[in-house]
Write the structure tokens for this entry.
Amino acid sequence: MDSFSVLIGGRAGDGINEAGMLIAQMLNQLGYRLYQYYDYPSLIRGGHNFSIVRAAREMIGAHLDSMDVIIALNQETVSLHRARMKEESILIFDSNQVKEEGGMGIPVGRIMKEEHAPPIMRNTCILGAFCRAAGIPWEVLEKVVKSRIPRMVEMNLQVARRGYDAAREAVRVPDLGREPLPIITGNEAVGLGLLKGGLKAYVAYPMTPSSSILHFLASVAPDFQLKVVHPENEIAVMLMALGFSYAGERSAVGTSGGGFCLMTEGLSLAGQAELPVTIVVSQRTGPSTGVPTYTAQSDLHFILNAGQGEFPRLVVAPGDPLECYDWSALALHLSWKYQIPSFVLLDKTLSEGAYSMDPRASLVGEELAGEELTGDHLAGEEGQPAAWEGRGEPYRRYQITESGVSPLLWPPVPGAAVKVDSYSHDQMGITTEDGATVAAMQEKRMRKEGHLQEDLAGYQTVRVYGDADSPTALLCWGSNKWPCIEAASALGQKVIVPVVLWPFPDRQLAAALDGVERMISVENNITGQLARLLRCRDLEVQDLVLKYDGRPFAVNELEMRLREVLS
């Protein structure tokens, strides 16, 4: 069995996401590599929620539209997802809620009543039935329940056993005999990456789909001596983060497009004052409130151009949790090295999707852990200014250097005034409107971008997959990486994924495009924003495959769309 897909659906409040994670963990115990997609409306209660779990022998990061098993906690799930069923698909349902001729009905309501169990345990009961139907040993479910459910474990196990005994085996999912891998969301991986990069303060106002970064970091804050703050709005978020940076604390913020709108004035302050900060922006369907619990890739040009005036920035767009981990750490590190704002650009699909991740494949070494970018550190970097030693010389916070990076200190420093200024200023940080000084400081700041680009040349800023000799290449960014990899494999094509979007990786992209005659850009927006960016670099994309309904590409859907374009 190369791939196995399960959908579980019900109402908001039924614990559908956690039920999906339990399914994923059971299949993980059998050695499969997992991807979980969670779909839910912006309602606290009510509305239809469903989770798709896909298991495969190799690493994956996208779902299929067709299901091997559908687990229905209500009638709506059957009605909405019947088209996903194949002839051999298995339907498992709560017979107290669903009226269906075929399939495998489980009397969940009666079992709940007889066991005096709370309604939330309905999904535990029906997962027991799924376990039996899929030929998964009871011991696997028992182990997962004990590890994932912290309260009322014995009652959950009893209810699950009743569901298990009420079902029959319909298919056997073989045990691959491989070690399980961690299953992690993109947001959790970003949080871990920021910690790897030396994060000391995380400031955020909750906004879907970035909110779980705040929750995750708050849960681990005591273990890492981390400050996690939830201010009153996004304006305060950005200004507080810059205050932490001024005090020498590596800081990051998290938001989505609407919240970032309020942060842009503070972003310009970071650019002028040369205060490092990392900004995580997880995109959702807009404009305005839009469809707040669904996905998009429509904020790329907003991020590239946000803020008044011109100043250097780093923009990275990881495509899976491993890249989230690596590039969040590097974004924070490079933000401090060059004293610039950096962006980690996500989307809802990546932020809230759960993936198998092999941490042994990480490219981030131990050298980033806890590294303090003080004046002494900068003194040892090629092209960086010497540290201020206070030998009769005044401290120049904005000292003009060949690299554009000035000696970095944070108060209190005996004998030095560490100034930051939102106005145009001289090397001391004193406000000035002198034309020559204004121009010199603009040039100083922008020199950082060239050195940053040279630094990035040592990393894989553009990833290439598929048939290296194919004259047709799919271009994508962010979470579209994985559906493109699978679709390209079926079509014999090359996939090119820029992970760094600014400074633009011209040389690495040119090398990746060698021999390519036709480019197809695959994006979750209506204007082809990556293609527009490439046109600014004198690269013409021949075709666009776009999806902008808030839903991610399914692998088979994308393959069909590509065949239409290629025909």
